[in-house]
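Pipeline run #58 for the internal structure catalog. This entry was flagged by the ingest filter as a single-chain record with no existing model, so it goes straight to prediction. Upstream metadata was stripped on purpose; only the residue string is passed forward. Reviewer on rotation: M.T. Logging verbosity set to normal.
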Amino acid sequence: MEKLRLEIIGMSYSQSQSGAYAIILGEQEGKRRLPIIIGSFEAQAIAIEIEKIKTPRPLTHDLFKSFADTFHINVTEVIINKFSEGVFYAVLLCSDGKTEQEVDSRTSDAIALALRFNCPIYTYENIMVAAGIIMDEETSEPIHAEPEQKLPTNLEDDLKVYTITDLQQLLKKAVEREEYEKASKIRDEITKRKRET
């Protein structure tokens, strides 16, 4: 069965499920999009890798990458290979240079690992037909490394009093303290201001 290459198009807070996020994968050569609901931990892991944020200690997916590197195992590709009752399934294709093995994975973890191993993400035509949506290029949104969230009004007001330089220092401190949710809100404010100038 022919594989379709996917790329991460964007990520946003899920309106349908509390505490969840939607990651949007798009065909590399096409207009179809595959929206997948993922948990907040996995959304954070994906966003941190997209932004290339260095954490004081390794997160779970970083630990997996270090472990695999230590034993000369590489994830060569990720395949979203099944869609059943609203749930996506994925496998990691792993190689030690001699043999190749398929490892079952949650789709959200597979995407987070694909970013860390810099490997391609694929799916099949039947999954795109069953779960994909067609989006005009004019209406598709650019990639958002951090999940978009509606910030509480008082926090938005608090962030508005800081300069961009102050916000960048606050962002650095939030990452050092492993306050990633706060860091994402500060980064959103920085991005918003840069767009406005």
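catalog note: The CA atoms of residues 92 and 168 lie 36 Å apart.
catalog note: The chain has two domains: 3-134, 153-196.
status: ready for reviewer M.T.
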